[in-house]
């Protein structure tokens, strides 16, 4: 919805140009800026990318696994000794829980899981510090140097009231070389063309990856799933997440061949789908609600059409729900004009005593149904209580579950609400940063991966602190996300928190850099650790010193 001439932002800005330098891979910000204020979104580069899992202990384990693979063919007795030593060391280093290896797991299965986990750590991508607008390192690639120059020139042109050429938005790390050089006025997709044909294919592949993982873990297909839809990932991927939701239901979009806009959908027959349909509930972000009204209607109509089919309960849980008299609404979100999922804000800055308080905040923030029958609705709690699984998709590797508290807000709020209603659904963090190779991890697996390969990695810490005050804020944001997940789920282990404390606080050199760069962030981080311990969310054998002891000047 655009502003009228009498709206406060329009009155405040008047004829003054609005120039908004913003990261090129976040088109969800560019769309409302243009629609509501006619602003110029000057796209800038994303930071360079590093890979994790290169700590000496992790590399040593990977070498031992390779040694075991060679010995298993030539000397089985020696291989058995190596295998035992590998698992003992992995347990001492805290890798077994992160790899999902339970006590009593057969040795070959445990080693295969550990090998996959170690490879996963080695493939974990993270930002190598921050991008400084209009600058590029001397050894940067030609496209990055050209982008830096274009950013400077475009900013001067915009401030001078001159024309700034438009350019596409998207993620360079996801293969979108066309967004370079940056420094252009960001454009996005036509919302009426979402999902695109390519996105429909990739979204179906991602959907099947989640179904396969659930089937492997539980031995049955999920009947009911809750997933989130956010504006920026939808715009970045052309609607892969929307297609994902439709495919789970057994629905395929239809397009106008001339305009490529989505004109409707077809419900696939069960024989073509090859598995039971899945009852999908989507919780939309406020930005998604504001940007994609046609898509909301598409998902709502698709769910209602599937529910009206006369198919057996075991093949069509949506039809089964209709026959039980349940509310057919499957698209929910905050009230118009409201944003966020409620749990993170309450956990970080509100008054709460128990996890169920955070679940209540999540449910209280999800009060409306959307689609053709939009309006206030109290049915979302029932969808949460009946869900078999929850999933959140991450389309860019460096935007992960612990990158700020938004994803933790959504996933954690859902889990806290489900637990308060007596449910224990599976929690999946779906990595579609390589869309041809989607990977469904449990929330527990993903937290362990990200804590070890990113948040506690010396390379990531050094890259952030190289940017001084602003870089230190990245650490503070990281512990906030961890705190929200620890408060709302069981995905954060005590070992994860020990590792973070050891890397950030117990390492005297790191903590001194943090304290000097940003005393406020350092104290906020210490306060989070103290609160984790006080609330019983972190049980540690470490001698974790109170904030006043580490920063006595802040207590004065």
From TrEMBL:
Q: Which domain of life is it from?
A: Bacteria
Q: Which organism is it from?
A: Methylobacterium dankookense
* Ranges where the CobN/magnesium chelatase domain occurs: 1-140, 146-543
Designated name of the protein: CobN/magnesium chelatase domain-containing protein
